[in-house]
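User: I'm writing a tutorial on reading structure tokens. Could you give me a worked example: one chain, its sequence, then its tokens, then a sentence or two explaining what the tokens reveal?
Assistant: Sure. Here is the example chain.
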Amino acid sequence: MYIEIIKATILGIVEGVTEWLPISSTGHMILVEEFIKLNASAEFMEMFRVVIQLGAIMAVVLLYFHKLNPFAPRKTMKQKKDTINIWFKVIIGVLPAAVLGVLFDDWFDANFYNYQTVAVTLILYGILFIVIENENKSKPVKIKSFNELSYKTALIIGFFQVLSLIPGTSRSGATILGAIILGTSRSIAAEYSFFLSIPVMFGASALKLLKFGFDFTSMEVAVLLTGMAVAFIVSVISIRFLLRYIKNNDFKAFGWYRIILGILVLGYFMFIS
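And here are its predicted structure tokens:
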């Protein structure tokens, strides 16, 4: 059992780092599982890959609790109204992925959960990050606060998030790219991506738990809780790192990372196959 806990710890670290950086957590989990395989059923692993994200989500809840709490006693009436507006914009942005995710979740898992898809999307979105950052270098930022983020823009960003249903895309990567294209600052793009993740991941985790059921063995409970706890701790560190990083840097470094990793993935799997 101890070796399974160690494996879950490693997977939790991978989840905590890659969930928030625009490099695809699902893609990395697929790759890491090639080398670190939990002694568990395929059904449990399908559920584990999604539910482990609950730990990562709790990091957002912790770090942004005051900002996202419309009932905070220290807030003025205007600040409470602004917080409620943020939540409405989050709900609007979540709708496209929520609807299509419920309808096509199993289909996407069956048809795209493989290394070829991950490699291609890693490379494709890596190129897009570099191209879009270069294109936007001289363009003025139009949206610098959540008050300036319109409901229409929030909905369009939500449609970009739908792209993340394909493994390797990166939910944060798709939403951040979409937000930057639409003229938001990098900090607003990143934070809105964080906020969108809360209902999306809670919903996805609930669906997977209902599908799997709640008949866990003691080992499965230990593995799941370990993965979630580690993902939570590492996510706090990753989110703080990303917010500091984008104050003075663009996303091109992540683009180059994705391209290099995608090429290595293709080479590795072509070599062993």
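What the tokens reveal: The mean pLDDT is 90. The chain has one domain: 2-272.
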